[in-house]
Amino acid sequence: MQDVRDALYIGHRSDGTLTRRPMSPHLQVYRFRLSMFLSIANRAAGVAAAAGSALAVCWLNAAAKGPDSFRKVQKVTRHPLGILALAGWALALVYHFVAGLRHLAWDAGYRFEKKDINEDGPVAVGVAVGTTVVLVATVLGLAVCRSRKKAS
Amino acid sequence: MNATLTPRIDVMRSQLSRARGLGSAKTGVNHWWMERMSAVALVPLSGWFVLQVMRLAGSNHDDVVEWGGKPANSSMLLALMVLTFYHMQLGLQVIIDDYVHGKPHLPASLLMKGVTFLIGLFAVIAVLKLALAPSRKAGA
């Protein structure tokens, strides 16, 4: 027994020997609902946003270190794979932001009925994906325009 | 008899426990509350961050140094970094509490706290260096 909670899973058979009680049914017995995916997606997005933020600190560090380091980091941020990673970070941040706002609303007592939650789920997905696409397109467009202006 | 005088229990806690304000976690709702408060603070800071990303898109090192040298930008950046890594630490703690049981729980929590603290500290130092002592020379 590693965890003190395991004590609650120990039961007796009718002949007196000890046995582990069955655990309550878990995920696989439930019909898929969007809200169950959005809940775990918020947690996953939080972890992804954290990992991306750690990488963003590398960018800050390179900017503080000098032009040579900054050029190295720009090689990553201008590489297609780097842009893909940045877009993924943006999606994680935006979804975690949207889901966080929903959580704050629930904590304040709004939109917490089953009907409301089921209505808001697809809206949250749409807002998160739409905002991310607009954001990534705007930033990429601005970057391309400014680079061209500097080159000319 | 007056029905409204029937005794009722509204709160399933002792008065002493209510006065202390601490539950089974021994810290009351502090962790939960600070997670919410840092989230609320990060809402406007994230908006500022998005604007700065748009402002800096496609810029070279000189532009970034000029941007990071402005006190308003470095203040906002410091606030963003401190709150981001604080909120990150609170959130990752909940994940560890949920999925890591028994003996590994303490070392996992300590490792996570150490790593988030150090990266946050690293971010703060980088912002301060960019603001106070930026290097513009190549090869520096």
Q: Can you offer a commentary on this structure?
A:
Chain A has 152 residues and is mainly alpha-helical. In chain A, 72% of the residues lie in helices and 4% in strands. Chain A has a two-stranded antiparallel ribbon with strand order 1-2. The longest helix of chain A has 38 residues, at 114-151. The radius of gyration of chain A is 24 Å and the shape is elongated. Chain B is mainly α. Chain B has one domain (30-132): 3 helical TM bundles of succinate and fumarate reductases (Up-down Bundle), CATH 1.20.1300. Chain B has helices at residues 15-20, 30-56, 61-68, 71-99, 105-132. In chain B, α2 (30-56) packs across α4 (71-99) and α4 (71-99) packs antiparallel against α5. The mean pLDDT of chain B is 89. The A-B interface holds A 2-3, 5, 43, 46-47, 50, 53-54, 57, 60-61, 63-68, 70-71, 93, 97, 100-101, 103-104, 107, 135, 138-140, 142-147, 150 and B 36, 39-40, 43, 46, 50, 53-54, 57-61, 64-65, 68, 77, 81, 84-85, 88, 91-92, 95, 101-103, 116, 119, 122-123, 126-127, 129-130, 134-140.
Largest sheet of chain A: 2 strands, antiparallel
Strands side by side in the biggest sheet of chain A: 1-2
Number of strands of chain A: 2
Tell me the total number of β-strands of chain B.
Answer: 0
Residues in helix, % of chain B: over 70%
User: Any idea what the shape of chain A is?
Assistant: elongated
Reported CATH architecture of chain B? Up-down Bundle
Order of helices and strands of chain A: EEHHHH
Low-confidence stretches of chain A: none
CATH class of chain B: Mainly Alpha
| N-C termini distance of chain A | 70 Å
- With helices defined by DSSP (H or I, 4 residues minimum), what is the helix count of chain A? 4
CATH H-level superfamily of chain A? Fumarate reductase/succinate dehydrogenase, transmembrane subunit
Average pLDDT level of chain A: 91
Major sheet attributes of chain B? none
User: What integer value in Å does the Rg of chain B equal?
Assistant: 23 Å
Which percent band covers the strand fraction of chain A? under 5%
CATH architecture field of chain A: Up-down Bundle
Subunit structure (chain B): Part of an enzyme complex containing four subunits: a flavoprotein, an iron-sulfur protein, plus two membrane-anchoring proteins, SdhC and SdhD.
Organism (chain B): Gluconacetobacter tumulisoli
Pfam families (chain B): Sdh_cyt
Protein name (chain B): Succinate dehydrogenase hydrophobic membrane anchor subunit
